[in-house]
Design a protein that fits this description.
Blueprint: H1 2-30, E1 48-53, E2 59-65, E3 73-78, H2 89-92, E4 100-105, H3 119-135, E5 143-148, H4 150-159, E6 166-170, H5 176-183, H6 189-192, E7 210-215, H7 223-232, E8 237-242, H8 253-265
Parallel strand pairs: 3-4, 3-5, 5-6, 6-7, 7-8
Antiparallel strand pairs: 1-2, 2-4
Helix pairs in contact: 3-4
Length: about 270
């Protein structure tokens, strides 16, 4: 009996050790600023490299492209949990041929920025970008919030009760709790998770036009989460769901045309 008790105690201790490690290092599992998924992409859209100062005095390296602030909408692009601004060149290059201005920010701890990423910090980064745009004379109604993956959690948070022109969510998750449970079903995610990004509880507070894009082959954020977010969203809402896209959706002719139609509908 003592033998089996000792074996059980051993596995309990091992599991406890794993949980403690997961709690301590969870942000290393969530945020990957040094990951690089794209190589040799060249900027063909002109950008001005600017620095945005947050309220907690962190400088955010950002890229800004201005066509016409009064006659075109301005996209605030909030990227995902991995890589630098250069990893999004293949996307923002396509904005060159659209009637939009854009600002893409690098999160704290990313692209050489100081600080460490966390949920409240990323919310502050995004709100600092909004303040920077409004200081340039961009009206709230002319701003489109674009969230990519992790950035969708930030996009949903800052769009609640706001009068932005619209919001675009690419590969959104319902909450980091649900995403964590999907990836680590053996861990007590709900108990130990620090950064929760509970978009499913917030999306009902968004009353502006919303576009949700997701690929059924997404192997990072399950497709059903994008579907669920669409179900929870208020009208007017639009979807772009594909059978073949993985987590990083292909910026092909169909997707770009869908974006152009959505953006045009906001004018």
């Amino acid at each position: 009996m003592n033998y089996f008790t000792n074996i059980l105690l051993f596995f309990v201790l091992i599991y406890f050790f794993i949980v403690v490690l997961a709690y301590i290092f969870q942000r290393n599992l969530l945020y990957h600023p040094k990951e690089n998924n794209y190589f040799n992409d060249k900027l063909i859209v002109s950008v001005e490299k600017v620095k945005i100062i947050t309220q907690d005095n962190i400088e955010l390296i950002s890229w800004y492209h201005e066509k016409d602030l009064h006659n075109h909408k301005t996209i605030l692009f909030l990227h995902g949990n991995a890589g630098s601004l250069e990893n999004r060149i293949h996307k923002i290059n396509h904005f060159k041929d659209m009637k939009i201005n854009f600002l893409i920010i690098a999160w704290r701890g990313f692209s050489g920025n100081k600080g460490k990423p966390n949920e409240s910090g990323l919310y502050e980064d995004a709100r600092s970008a909004i303040r920077w745009l409004t200081s340039k004379g961009v009206e709230e109604k002319n701003i489109i919030i674009y969230g990519e993956s992790l950035g969708t959690g930030v996009a949903v948070e800052i769009s609640q009760f706001q009068n932005f022109g619209g919001i675009i969510l690419e590969s959104p998750f319902t909450s980091m709790i649900n995403a964590g449970k999907d990836k680590y079903p053996f861990l007590p995610v709900k108990i130990i998770l620090k950064d929760r990004y509970e978009s499913n509880n917030k999306i009902k507070n968004i009353k502006i036009p919303i576009m949700i894009m997701h690929g059924k082959l997404d192997n990072i954020v399950p497709f059903y989460m994008g579907e669920k977010m669409y179900q929870l969203a208020s009208e007017p809402k639009y979807s772009y769901f594909t059978d073949y896209d993985n987590h990083m959706m292909e910026y092909n002719r169909k997707l770009l045309e869908t974006l152009k139609i959505f953006i045009s509908s906001l004018n």
